[in-house]
Amino acid sequence: MSTLLNLSCVFIVGMAISSQAAAQERTLDAYIQQAFQSNDGLRQQQFQLDKSLYALDEAKSLFLPNVSLQSSYTKASGGRAIDVPLGDMLNGVYTTLNTLTGTHRFPQLQNETITFNPDNYYDAHLHTTLPLVDAELWYNKRIKQQQITGQQAAVNVYKRELVRNVKTAYFQYYQAVRAVSIYNAALDLVAENIRVNQSMLANGVRNSTALTRSLSEQQRTLAQRNQAANTARNAKAYFNFLLNRPSADTILLDTSLFVLPGMLDTTGIDHREELEQWKVAEQTNALNLQLQRSYIIPQLSTFLDLGSQGVGTFDNQSRYYFWGVSLQWNLFAGGQHTYRARQAEADRRTAEAGYDQTAETLHLELTQSFNNYHSALETYQSTGAQLRFAQKYLNDQNKAYREGQLLYVELLDAQNQLTEASLEEDQAFAGVQIALADLERTQATYPLKSP
C-alpha cells in the first residue's frame, strides 16, 4: 500500500511546474541569456549588425578630408625634343651690349635642345581633397543609418525566435524526464503486483497466469521507459545545442506548481520587429529614391597640394602649394537617373505592400496562437480531472483485487489507465507552456536586452 501512496504522490503532485514560480522563471531566463551569449546563429546576426555599424562609420568618414602622399621621379634620355636657338638669337645682341658698355656682363649662350621627357625630375606633395557639397554622401549616410536599424530588428527577430525555441526545448525535456519518472512509478506498481502474485501463488490463492502476465507487463513497461529515456536524451541534446553547450550537460528543472496568466491581449503585434524591418525597408528605399533624384544638385569640392618639385634640386624655389575648387554638375546621362529613381520607387512600394501583408499574417498568427493556448489549457485541465478519476479507480480496483473479487487483467487495466492519464497530463502541461511561449513570441512581449 505504501508503494501505491508513493505513486499517488508522484502522479498527482509531481506534474506541476514549480512551487516557486519565480525561481523557475529565473532559471529559464538564465538559460535564455546564456543562449543570447553563445548561440552561433545569433552571433552571426550580431556580426552583421557590427558590419552595418562599420558601414555607417565609413559613410561618415567620407565627409572628412582625404590626404594622400603623391610622388614621382623621372630619369630620361632621348625621345621627342625641341631646339631652342638661344645663342643664335641673343649672342649678337649680347656682343653689342658688351661693346657699348665696355664690359663682359653678357655671356655668350649655347643653343639648347630640350627633351619632352624630363630628366632627373621629381614631384612630391601632399594631396588633400574635401567635399563641400555632395548630396550623394549625405543620402548614403542616412541609408546606412536605416540599415543599422533594420539589422538591429533582424537581431531581435532572431532573439525572439531563440527564446521560443529555448522555452519549447526546455518543456519538451521536462516532459520527457517526467515520462521517465512516470514509467519508473509504473514499474514500481508492476513490481508490487509481482510480489503480491508470487505470494498468492505460494499460498494457493492464485494460479501462475497472473504472475506471468505481470512479468510480461514489466518487460513492456521497461521498453517504454527506455524509449522515454532516449527521448529525454535527445531533448537534452537539442536544448544544449541551442545554448552551444556539450550535449550531455545537466539541465536544471524546477518542478512544482505553476501560475496561469490572466487575460491575454489578442491584438498586440505592434512590437513585432518584422514590421519594423518592413518600415526600415520602406524608409531606406525612400531615401534611395531621393538619392537618385539628387543628381541635379552640383557636387562641389576643394583640393590643396603642398610639396616640392624640381630637377635635382630642393630649395625655396622648388617648394610650392596648389589650391583650387572643382564643380561637377551632371546635366544629361541618357535618362539613367530617371530610370534608377523609378526602380527605387518600385522598391519602396514593394516594401509598403510587404508591410501590409506581414501585418495581416501576424494578426492571423496571433489569433491562432491565442486559440491554441486556450485549447491547450482546456486540455490540461481535462487531463487533470482524468488523472484524479484514474487514481480513484485504481484505488478501488486494487482493494477489490486484494480481496479476491477482481481478475488481475482488470487491475492491470486500471494501472495502465493511470499511467496513460499521467502521460497525457504531462504532455498537456508541456503543451500549455509551449503554447504560451508561442503566444509570447507572436506578441513579442519577452523583454530583450540590447545586444
Automatic annotation (TrEMBL):
One of its GO terms (molecular function) is efflux transmembrane transporter activity. GO terms for cellular component: cell outer membrane; efflux pump complex. InterPro entries: OMP_efflux, TolC-like. It is found in: Cell outer membrane. Its main location: membrane. Residues 1-23 form the signal peptide. The keyword Zinc does not apply. The keyword Signal applies. Keywords: Cell outer membrane, Membrane, Signal, Transmembrane, Transmembrane beta strand, Transport. Belongs to the outer membrane factor (OMF) (TC 1.B.17) family. This is Outer membrane protein TolC. It comes from Dinghuibacter silviterrae. The lineage of its organism: Bacteria, Pseudomonadati, Bacteroidota, Chitinophagia, Chitinophagales.
